[in-house]
From TrEMBL:
UniProt key word Cytoplasm: no
Pfam families registered for this protein in UniProt: FAR1
Record key words, sorted: Coiled coil
Coiled coil: 110-137
Ranges for domain FAR1: 12-100
Domain of life: Eukaryota
InterPro entries: FAR1_DNA_bnd_dom
PANTHER family linked: FAR-RED IMPAIRED RESPONSIVE (FAR1) FAMILY PROTEIN, FAR-RED IMPAIRED RESPONSIVE (FAR1) FAMILY PROTEIN-RELATED
Name this protein carries in UniProt: Protein FAR1-RELATED SEQUENCE 5
Amino acid sequence: MEFDSEDAAKMFYDEYARGVGFVMRVMSCRRSERDGRILARRLGCNKEGHCVSIRGKFGAVRKPRPSTREGCKAMIHVKYEKSGKWVITKFVKDHNHPLMVSPREARQTMDEKDKKIQELTAELRNKRRLSATYQEQLIACMKIVEEHSDRLSKKIQNVVNNLREFESIDQDLLHMR
């Protein structure tokens, strides 16, 4: 199958997941080293892998919770093709757990989470641009202050030299009297 966009592929797999009885999770992506855009994405069951818990390492665990991960292999891999389409290159259908989505798990779809991630990523990108602009302005301001400081130092040095010259002339005049 092929899609016009990565989002279209996600929406398709999310609808498929809900219909079959599992929750889709965005698992990984591969980005271009040149411009950072996403070239491939792996979408799968939210029970993929096994949770490595750090609970208990930093003190007592108040309420140990069971892991929601069961090592499920169900997934699709979509890849951006030169044609501009997103194509499914791998599909694993089988789950190793019962399929049935509880209302709690289905409460927030991955589309909503992805939209929030995209919004936050865009906001972060804008903040970085703003920060870079502020940095450029600060550097320009510091350069102006430094140039002004150099000019003031030269003027002060001229005044000091003129005073020394005046003192020496004044001393000569006093000795002549």
